[in-house]
Amino acid sequence: MKRSLRFLLALLMICSLTMGQTTGLDWTKTDCGGTNHHLFAELDNGKVTLIEYFEVGCSSCIFAGNYLDAIYSDYLASNPNRVNFYAMPYNAAPTCTDAQSWKNNNGFSCTTFTDGSADISYYGGMGMPTIVVLGGLTHHVYYKKLGFVAGDDPTIRSAIDVALANSGVPENTASMNAISAYPNPSASTVTINYSLRAAGNVDMVIYNILGEKMKSIDLGRQQAGENKYLLNTKSFAKGIYVLQLNTGSKREVIRLTVAN
């Protein structure tokens, strides 16, 4: 019974992540602090946007908000001024006073707006909360889900990583010191060089430019210091990919170009 339930939950998650629009809904809004925002212009300038659509008084929205706020804080430190965290009520009823109270009472760092009803209709409904990640010059939806569980945290982080890598803005140079690829572009194989500060388990995940997972590689336990892995790219179609290196709670990303 438990196995069937886990399977059903996994299936529902996949469906909720893949159904609906693949391009974001553009808007021009004034936030509750009085600043004007044009969403697509922000994305065109290399920003990645994380949005939570919430209901005032919704405990699961607050639960999700705590995780999203922590995610935002981490990216604020690792990629300053590259990720926006927005929150807006799912309908037109709450005022800016309501939205700001929701933010302040819960200690969140998000920028608040009013009336997310058009967005909710566009993205497929309200999930208590609904969460989206948008980025890139194509204004792509890298993540969209109705509802939230704690296990969604790494998926949201991966979506932000892929969106950042595809934003058209050079990656954080501090991150590039930790991982490199040669040759890049690659026609058949590419050597991934990476440095670990401490020994630990390492895995790699490769995404296409749309944020779809193409391959996972478990590298097992690796020693501290310089390491390398020879990646065979012959089975990959020509194009741009994002390689994510995971070492415990730390992640590094790099763009790969396959020229088969």
General description of the model:
There is one protein chain. The chain has 7 helices and 14 strands. Residues 1-18 and 172-177 have low confidence and may be disordered. The chain has 2 domains: 16-165, Glutaredoxin, CATH 3.40.30.10; 173-258, Immunoglobulin-like. The chain is of the alpha+beta class and 260 residues long.
Summary?
The chain is of the alpha+beta class. 30% of the residues lie in helices and 35% in strands.
Which key terms come to mind for this protein?
single chain; 260 residues; Glutaredoxin; Immunoglobulin-like; 2 domains; 5-stranded mixed sheet
Q: What does the secondary structure layout of this molecule look like, with pairings?
A:
Layout: H1 2-18, E1 28-30, E2 36-38, H2 39-44, E3 48-54, H3 59-78, E4 83-89, H4 96-105, E5 111-112, H5 117-123, E6 130-135, E7 140-146, H6 153-165, H7 173-176, E8 179-182, E9 189-196, E10 200-208, E11 213-222, E12 225-232, E13 239-247, E14 250-258
Query: What's the number of extended β-strand segments?
Result: 14
Strand order of the largest sheet: 5-4-3-6-7
Q: What characterizes the major β-sheet?
A: 5 strands, mixed
- Described by the principal axes of the CA atoms, the overall outline is elongated
CATH superfamily of the largest domain: Glutaredoxin
